[in-house]
Amino acid sequence: MNNLLIAPIITPLLTGMVLIVFQKNVMLQRILSLVALVATIVISVLLMNQIRDGGIQSLQLGGWEAPYGISLVGDMFSALLLLAASIVSVCCLIYAFSSIGRKQEKLYFYPLFLFLIAGVNGSFLTGDLFNLYVCFELFLVASYVLITLGGAKRQLRESLKYIFTNIIASAFFLIGVAYLYSMTGTLNLAQLSIRIAEVGQDGLITTVSIVFLIVFAMKAGLLLFFWLPGSYSVPPTAIAAIFAALLTKVGIYAIFRMFTLIFYHEPQITHLFIGILAAITMILGGLGASGFSDLRKILTYNVIISVGFIMAGLVSFTSAGLTGSIYYLIHDILIKAIVFMIGGTIVHLTGTSNLKNISGLIRLHPQLGWMFFIAALSMVGIPPLSGFLGKVFTTQGVFEAGYYWLGVIGLVASLLILYSMIKLFMNAFWGETILSVEEEKGTTKGLLFPIALLTLASVALGFGAEAITGYVAQAAEELLNPNLYIQAVFE
Length: 491
Fold this sequence. Notes:
Elements: H1 7-21, H2 26-54, E1 57-60, E2 71-74, H3 76-99, H4 102-105, H5 109-125, H6 129-146, H7 153-184, H8 189-199, H9 203-220, H10 228-231, H11 237-261, H12 270-291, H13 295-316, H14 319-350, H15 361-364, H16 366-380, H17 386-400, H18 404-428, H19 448-463, H20 465-480, H21 482-490
Antiparallel strand pairs: 1-2
Helix pairs in contact: 1-2, 1-5, 2-3, 3-5, 3-11, 3-14, 3-19, 3-20, 5-6, 5-11, 6-7, 7-9, 8-21, 9-11, 11-13, 11-14, 12-13, 12-18, 13-14, 13-17, 13-18, 14-16, 14-17, 14-19, 14-20, 16-18, 16-19, 17-18, 17-19
């Protein structure tokens, strides 16, 4: 029993509740929000070290024995994602201080931001399928409000698409939960793994697994990403950055958890299907990123490409493939926040997201330009930056599993990422400077610091890969061995 497991959930949740009372005191909201999220970073590091030394940790709330009560389970995979999510949330919060505006700050921005983080953290830590649904709904409800902050006409149109899509996905989620409970009599993830292993994953259970895959694919942007490019390009920059960094990753996490712990018995059906979805996602995402000349659209389609690439490691179901996916997932959480914040800063300076109307920013804003260049190279997987190891291990795992076609598509997708990001860099930062400092629509005051923090974290992840290798290898080993998870829950 490890009581620390509940801290990453209740810390932002309780702080958010307190902040509702102090709606008009913006400075107090900023300070308490930042303290809560920094505390979550510390808790995540403590959990990682406890899991490294003592194995997977579990907590049965209320003293009820599993599987009858609410279970919280922390393995190395969830702890790594907790740490990455906490770092990104702190930097996006700091970015919001200078960019979100007083009007939005008084519209419960900080409580909603903390509720979103509480839901994301709860999704990573819950050991119960119904509570996974509850945590999903917590961060989704917060995101429904956050995506509309500002009230622009385009925002409202895209937010309706985002809300309706997630409502439909949530309805299918509940249908899948009901069917699975009727067949197994439990919703505890560890006991579900035992029950399905005992009775065998027959055709009906495989069908239910496909229902869950469709649900989480909609939330992750795996093929069913029709809602994503518009929804992620309309909110204020700090919100778009946290959406791009975390919300699709929760869907990815859920797919990894379900298809390594519960539905892993028929990989020739389920995992092959995931592979086909991943391949199509990478191709369509790459075409979108290459074809558009709108800064926001290029960045959102790059989110889609990364979803497909991360899934390729799961499809391989090998140690190298899963190790690569975990590396790349952590890297992608950091990098997507960086490029979305830089993209939003460019729009803030120039007043446009059309690359044809932006040029030569690097002369007036060299720090912004070179941080974007580092992030772009990292996304492509240039050594020794943070994306390199993830791409190498994932490609190795896919080839080891015999999915050569998927590996080749992953490499082609990397070239499309390179083309789209270099196009963005050359158009926005290189060339003749169009705007003088006096003509710029905004300022970078207060915006560069959080971007620099994340860039340092990303560079450290690449250059200091040896320090995190043991943690990632342990995470991959735990995913490949469901018995470790089951023993931690029922010990």
